[in-house]
Amino acid sequence: MNKASFSLALTRHLLRVPALWLCAALWTPLATIAAPDASFIEASEVPGGIAIVDLGPAAESGISVRWGKRPIALMNSAGRLQALIGIPLSTKPGTQELSVTLADGSTKAASFTSRVSRRIPAP
Description:
The protein is of the alpha+beta class. The chain has one helix and seven strands. The chain has a four-stranded antiparallel beta sheet, with no helix packed on it. Strands 1-5-4 form a three-stranded antiparallel beta sheet, with no helix packed on it.
């Protein structure tokens, strides 16, 4: 290896190192975040809002939840498993049934009540 090719190889190597450090610096905060907390989410069980349904202790894994045919997002918040449900604008007021499938394959029901939103009159 001559001096010019060694210098070029060394330059390429040194350019990669800062890029690796930059990637590590950007990913470290994401990796060190504890389990997300849903306390910043304000539940509003109206069409266009979000319903939060508590499903019990978050000790079990492999749980899935569906609302009709829609899969529902789950979050561990303060040791509790919670379903986060975006309520479509077309949803009618009333009790909405969820199907919870446990890790062993058994199912149980959960529900939330969608209500009518209070509309602010136009000025």
